[in-house]
Amino acid sequence: MMDHTDNAATGRSASLIDGQLERDGHALAANYERCITFRMLLQEISATMTMRIQAVESSLGVSEGAFETQDAAVQDMIQAHQQVEEDLRAIFTALKHQRVDPAMVSGEVGKSLFDFVDADTVMDLQRQAQSHIHTIVESRHNTVDSLELLRATMSFYQGLDFNGMVPLSSDGQSVWDALGDLCQHLQDELFECKLRHTSLQETRHHAAVDRITEDSSALVKASSTALNHLTELYDVALLYFVDMEQCDRRILHTFSAMHDTSQAYDAALSECHVLLDELTNLLRFYERFLAAYEALPLELQRRQAYEATTRRLVR
Known about the structure:
This protein is mostly helical. The chain has a single domain, classed as Substrate Binding Domain Of Dnak, Chain:A, Domain 2, CATH 1.20.1270. Helix content is 86%, strand content 0%. The protein is built from 4 helices and no strands. Helix 1 packs antiparallel against helix 3 and helix 3 runs antiparallel to helix 4. The longest helix has 106 residues, at 209-314. The protein is rod-shaped and about 150 Å long. It starts with a helix and ends with a helix.
């Protein structure tokens, strides 16, 4: 009678163990399937964000290079314009001080060479140039602000660290590469738990009951812990992704605004070069005008001497 009772108890115990092992096996399988799902989602987020970050970095680099080229050209143009304005002021001062012989202007007294130049045209050209320069300087400030905003955005995304949950294996490793390594490690952990549980089921008849149930429970706990870690990583990655989706609109708007600013910048710079050429030509003309008048007395003396010599020869 006791043997029959013991056998019945042993049977119930084995049935309970088999039931727990089966439940734990299902739990481990479900955890592993969820792990695969989360890892695939994380891979998609990682690939998308990496691609977008690289695209913005590339566009930012091109924009910075273009700005440096434009800025150098503008600085040269502004310097050249300032020099022309300074030279024009100097030549106008010289023209004002150069009195004209009344005999050369129908007896009018007090005339200077400045009275015979179109100063209004020069000043109008200078005002136009200054207006374009103001546009250029304002555009430059807007571009600088846009570049700083983009750099700050890139710095933020390059500094993402998943709240310290993703260890970097080296200083040069990106957080997204490290995330991929960590996801692989967690998946390996869950797969190892499945394998060990399968082995546990196969050897359950040769091990102590308490040891089997403890090991099975420990494997489920380890699997759940790894899955929870993966879930937390996904939650953070999703927040990053949603944030970037919102930032994308601002980034695109910033690049679009920079493009419009650059076009206005180039147009104003082109107009400035045209005006600078006109002012330079006027400057050269006034310099020749002044030089010709200053040389006039000597030319008159030369002609008078020539006429006197000619008259003597005729006689």
